[in-house]
Amino acid sequence: MRLTILGSGTNLHPARAAAGYLIETDHTFLLDFGPRTLMNLLKTSVDRHSIGHLFFSHHHADHVADFIPFFFDAVITAKMSPMSSPRQGITIFGPTGTRRMFGSILRTFPAFTPTPFPVGIRNLGETSVTIGKTTIMTKYMTHTPKLRCLGYRVEHGGRTFAYSGDAQYSSNLVELCRNTNVAVLDCSFPVQKPGTNHMNAHDCGRVAKEAGVKTLILSHFYPVCEEYDVKGQCAKVFGGKIIVARDRLSLRI
Ligand SMILES: [Zn+2]
Ligand SMILES: [Zn+2]
Questions:
Q1: 2-244 CATH choice from 3.40.50.1820, 3.40.50.1220, 3.40.190.10, 3.60.15.10
Q2: Ligand nearest to the CA of 19
């Protein structure tokens, strides 16, 4: 399994793309697709047309926006491609409301329908999805009131990866991350400037410690994080390996 961070920031971070993560197992798929992550995807060696499964943690714009140019390109490219090499379909997964929101996008943007390849949209609860030899499990996360949010746990070849999406501390998040090789957590804020609806560096350390995570990756930074030692703050709580995410960081899990 390989993880490539396409975005380690938030909507308006001046130096980081917003949320997006590329996972390569026996399939290639994305977890979230926020603004500016498509540009980072283009800088990888991965063929964007090989991506057939998109998983969204929730519907805030900093996790969704680059789906629109990605999908437009997929449609245009498929229409120009020879019939002998059709693009594989695209399946979109996410929490309650995913069918409504992406169905609306597909109906509204010019040229998005009819699509020249199959498109599926699936609302997920707490469940597991198997794609080839990869299993993706979901748990509900606590983020903002009234918004359904999912955390994802990916298992392949005996290796495990967890992604919180946007989340506050919760027992569900600890369970999602239980004994994972690598976990990416929402570290929006430093301890000195905590914000609502997200974790700070201390919270992330607490989750990783309680879950027995091997390697913790701090990500989803608001600009204020750049002024503080979030890794040092986290290390006061969590004794395992800590990585501060950066765009296009790629590692084998
Ligand atoms: Zn959010
Ligand atoms: Zn976010």
A1: 3.60.15.10
A2: 2
**Which residue, 7, 25, 30, 65, is CA-closest to 152?**
30
The span from the CA of 138 to the CA of 204, in Å, is: 19
Which ligand ends up closest to the CA of 60?
A: 1
Global pTM?
A: 0.97
Indicate which ligand has the atom closest to the C-alpha of 62: 2
For the stretch 20-60, pLDDT in tens is 999 999 999 999 999 999 999 999 999 999 999 999 999 99
Q: What does the domain layout of the chain look like in residue ranges?
A: 2-244
Return d(Cα 64, Cα 79) in angstroms, integer.
24
CA distances from 78 to 133, 213, 244 (A): 27, 41, 37
Contact 190, 230 (CB under 8 A): yes
User: Considering only CA atoms, which of 151, 131, 137, 54 is closest in space to residue 98?
Assistant: 54
pLDDT digits (tens, 9 = 90+) for 165-182: 999 999 999 999 999 999
What spacing in Å lies between the alpha carbon of 143 and ligand 1's midpoint?
7
* pLDDT 10s digits, 126-162: 999 999 999 999 999 999 999 999 999 999 999 999 9
